[in-house]
Each structure stands twice: as structure tokens, then as C-alpha cells.
Amino acid sequence: MVKQYTKNPVGAHYGTRGFLIQRFTAVVMAVYTIAAIVVIAMRRPAGYAGYKALFAGAFGLFTLLFLAALLYHAWIGVRDILMDYVKPTGVRLAFQFVVAAMLVFYFIWAAALFWGRWA
Amino acid sequence: MSSTPATRAAVRRPKYYDLSLAHLPPGGLASILHRVSGALLFFPGLPLLLWFLQSTLGSEEGYRRFAGLYAHPFVKVVLLAFVWAFAHHFFAGIRYLFLDMHIGIARSPERKSAIAVMVLGVLATIAVGVCIW
User: Fold this and answer.
1) Among partner residues B41, B42, B63, which is closest to A51 by beta-carbon distance?
2) Residue in B50, B64, B94 closest to A110 by CB
């Protein structure tokens, strides 16, 4: 008789979700990077006024979107690094907590910087 | 060499670990550099980027202060280090997207693309270096 497999398989495709989000945010950032190089090369902002004007309008909105994608991408990447090298669970969770708190703080910071700039 | 297998096995030999990165295949080197560049972009890259954006967008005075800093050769070298990290992460990341789609996973194209992304990362850094110097 075949013994029934009773162990709970790890996770509920959390890994797959992280993998897909990592790819999706990467594509968003790659598109922004190329677009940003083209926009800056075409508009050639000069001085403080030009620099500030660059972020007024759609470019400011897309910069915030880029930063949001970057922060989520950084979370998955740094979490993977911590899972690979920091083996004691408590220490790893402490590191992960600090990283997550930093990223949330960065997101609020980025949103405060760019929110409404495109209006 | 004259010892028999039995006596050789009895001798405790020191373990030899060759940690030289040169023994990594190109794909492995591109991979560890992808990780190192990603970690550098997270810290200190990310807080520096936000600090830069806040200072330069916040006031004309902050913008001028950074323009002054930018004239410093050391600042340009640091900037180029981040340019390399970003460029390598960018090109190596695009390579992974293709590998995920099972494009170029045979050994020969995999090696060539790994070398290509490392070269592209350095070339992009040199190009930006020429522009800003």
C-alpha cells in the first residue's frame, strides 16, 4: 500500500509569484530606462528650471512608477540574498524586517517627492 | 606517486579550495556580478538616489550644491561605479529574461551572451565616463 503523502508542500506558489513580479518590475524599469534616456537626450534640460520642468508632466509620474517597481524588485532580490546567506531564522527575519521597513520608508519618501508633480 | 591507493587514502591531506573567480564559467561570473551589482544598487545606491532627487528637486541651492559636487573627480568615479552596477544589472537582467523563455540556453550561446552582457556593462560605463569627464 502506498503511504499517503501528508506533509504540507512548502508555500502556495509564493516563489512563483515572486519570480513573476521580479520579471514584471524588471520589464517596467527597462522600458522606463530606455524612455528616460531618449526623453533626456531629446529635451536636453538646461539648468535648474529645465531640470525641474523635466519632472513636471508625465515624466514625473513615470519616475514614481519606476521607483515603485524598483522598490518591489529590490525587496524580492534582497530577500533572496538573505535567504541564501543568512541561515538562522531569527537573524534572517530581523534582517528582512529592517529591509522591508527601509523599503516602505523609501516608498513614502519617493511618493512625497513626486506626488502631484505631474499635475 | 609511489604510494599504493591504500596508504594514500590513510594519509590526511589538507583540503584545497580554489576560490579563484577565474574558474567560474562566464555564466557564473555574470550571475555573481548580477547579485553584487543588485546589492550595491539597493545599498547604498537607493538611499543616495532618493537623497540626490530630494536635494536637487527641492531647491535651486541644493541643485547648485550637487552641480558643485559633480565637478569633483572622486564623485564622478563613484557615479561611474553605480553606472556600471546599473548597466550590468540591466544587461544581465535582459539576458535572464531571454533564458527564462528558453532562448539561448544551449551551452555555446549561453557562454557568449554571458560574456556579451559583461562587456556591454563595461562599455556602457566607459561611454558614460567619456560623456561626463
Assistant:
1) B63
2) B50
Instruction: Report the distance separating Cα A23 and Cα B36, nearest Å.
Output: 18
Contact of B124 with B36, CB cutoff 8 Å: no
pLDDT surpassing 80 at residue B66: yes
Q: HSE on the CB side for A32, CA within 13 Å?
A: 19
CATH class of A14-114: mainly alpha
Residues B72, A99: Cα–Cα separation, whole Å: 32
**The three three-digit cell numbers of residue A87, written as one number:** 541561515
Mean predicted confidence (pLDDT) in A77-84 = 96
Instruction: Locate the domains of chain A by residue range.
Output: 14-114
Mean pLDDT for all residues in chain B: 91
Residue A88 binned pLDDT confidence (cut-offs 50, 70, 90)? very high
In this prediction the pTM is 0.86
